[in-house]
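Q: What changes when iron/sulfur cluster is included in the input?
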Amino acid sequence: MSDIVAPPLSDDVPTPDLKPDAMKEVRPFKASPEHQAALGFPGTLVDDWQKVAIRRLGELVEGSRALRVFLDSCVKCGACTDKCHYFLGTGDPRNMPVARQDLVRKVYRRYFTWAGRWFPWLVGAQDLTPEVLESWYTYYHQCSQCRRCSVFCPFGIDTAEVSMAAREILDSVGVGQKYCNEILGKVHKIGNNLGLPEPALRNTLEGLEEDVKEQCGADVRFPVDVVGAEVLLITPSADFFAEPHIDGLIGYAKVFHQAGISWTVSSEASEAANFAMFIGSHEQMRKVAQRIREAAIALKVKRIVVGECGHAWRVAYSFWSTLIGPLDFLDPRYPQPQHICEVTEGLIARGALRLDPSANDDKVVTFHDSCNVARATRMGDRPGGQFTVPRSVIRSVCAHFVDMDPNTIGDKTFCCGGGGGLLTDDLMDLRVKGALPRLTALNTVVQERKVTHMAAICAICKTQFSKVLPYYGLPREMVISVHQLVGDAIVLGAKD
Amino acid sequence: MSAWTIGYAVLLYVAFVVLVGGVAYRVAVYRFTPAPLRIPTMPAPRTALGVVARMGREVGLFSSLFRGDKWAWIWSALFHASLLLVLLQHLRYVLAPVPLWVRLESPFGSYAAFVLVISLVGLLGRRLLIARVRFVSAPSDYLMLLLLLVIGVTGTLMRFADRVNIVGFKAFILGVMALHLQSLPLEPLILVHVASVAGLMLIFPFSKLLHAPGVFFSPTRNQVDRSRREGGMRVSAGNEAGTGTTASPVVREGGL
Ligand code: SF4
Ligand code: SF4
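A: The predicted holo structure follows.
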């Protein structure tokens, strides 16, 4: 891993010269036959893979207006070409969003359009060869499905949709990605991405209760499987053990504690993440989401609140109603589901939390908009609330807040470099280079505005940043959970 | 009646049927293809009216392209705006009598032809000179621009340099429309211009020109942000059920 060198940080990210095939050899490990079988995918490349792949492509296009419109409409204007963090970090032209889409589009044209069937050379259509399949595996696993490209495309073409479709086709012919598929197997078998069984989960949470008691003297509870609790908290399992995630979990618990809201996690659905979105499988996505519906019914909760996790919030906010809805058994007086930042912001607004922002006086904080939250969801009651609500929470608990370059926040935010199922060590090279645009903006506020911490609301972002910050000479402890700031500022004891 | 007249008339009939039929078919396909999951690019409007406004900005002002690439925006905005003016100007060749507003628009449409040609040169230049755009361009991408250039240049020449028998041509067109053929003036500029236009109409439903109807069906742009149950969302600011954004100083200042 020592041979991975981060590009130097300057005050801007220049558009790189094209370095064709620069990342051609960077691809994640493939799933083993067992991982594949657990999800109902063929274990190895099927014999008639070409036929199967083309048929699957046809089915996907027939079932998705997005794919149809996106594959037809691109005019090759180039507006998206310099918008992808992986292109900016690597210079590989196939990491330009339109070029990434073209890997599928060329095959689609060849087999499904009149022009491509008769004049392939004219319209750049291409047979589905073993090399093309391999290029799909490589470059669709160099896309974090962050949707930044779709913001700038005149037709809203979303490369993430094409990536998801391509991964689904790859799975259907027996070429899966180890990281995602192994994790999905764990969710089905054990209930969470980490494969943390119920006793271990209880143990961890009991340990947390003791830690918090020791730290601030209050009996803050971390309940598991409490029937009749008001809130079911669905949070990424990294919150249960990883740093800096766990301090965020402590923050949620303190918020619920002080507001007097009873809550619980579910051992059956102890995972907010839904990696099925990354592999483009609606069937898997529904199955993973279904556990949550069932847990909410079994525990007789009134509300579902989702913790700090980007893609999970997308699945919950945008897809649950389609996949596992309607959620009409929950209390209709609340948004269902609700984001933890919405809950906290609402409580702060009505004065239900006792906060001492001076607890965070040692920090100058900036905020990283996670792509899925920014470009695929909302918080609060108006468009853009996904940007204002977390910032408002941070400002309430921390006196020193600074935003990064406006071209790198809000809906223009840059991916952390590890989203979309790429948060695996076998893609470290890509992850380091893909973090360049975000860390350039971060470094600028570190230099110019004395920023000490970057808060985030996504488990993947937090893990990714902790891992790649040192490559850029920045301390890994810089990245923190928004609810760590909240948790540290809450004054317990007074209102208990 | 010459073979030219019959040939060009047939060409225009075929081109018209292919264009209208092909686009209608494609639109129907888009319309009836399911869009199971909600994927608007956020922030997205919360109401259908908001979506109409968003789509209006996309189609009328190319707002996303503007954010994405200023030069691409300038060239394509000039191209589409001048094309619109030129097309309106062309109504005078197919309508009899010519309505007053068309006559008033005519000078604008005529001079817009220059802008049209210049913008096409700009678009072609970008495609050739910017390595990133060149990398993703297929032969058809260049040929389409060249075809448009041929149309634009022949049209401009006819209007400003080498005046053709436009009266005779209009008689031909009206004849085609009335299914009662009149002879086509055999002038090279007219022949090239009309054949190129017919060619463009023929490839329209089979090419990236489908972006014109496609944009209206793009789920990231035409979907309303309303996927979750938003109970309690608009209740008074004091209620914890609401998210209290109205009470937040950041939001009151307009936030981002
Ligand atoms: S979705 Fe994100 S990672 Fe994928 S091509 Fe677009 S900008 Fe790049
Ligand atoms: S911005 Fe959209 S239309 Fe332009 S090249 Fe990229 S995907 Fe194609």
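Observations recorded in class: The first strand of chain B starts at residue 229 and ends at 230.
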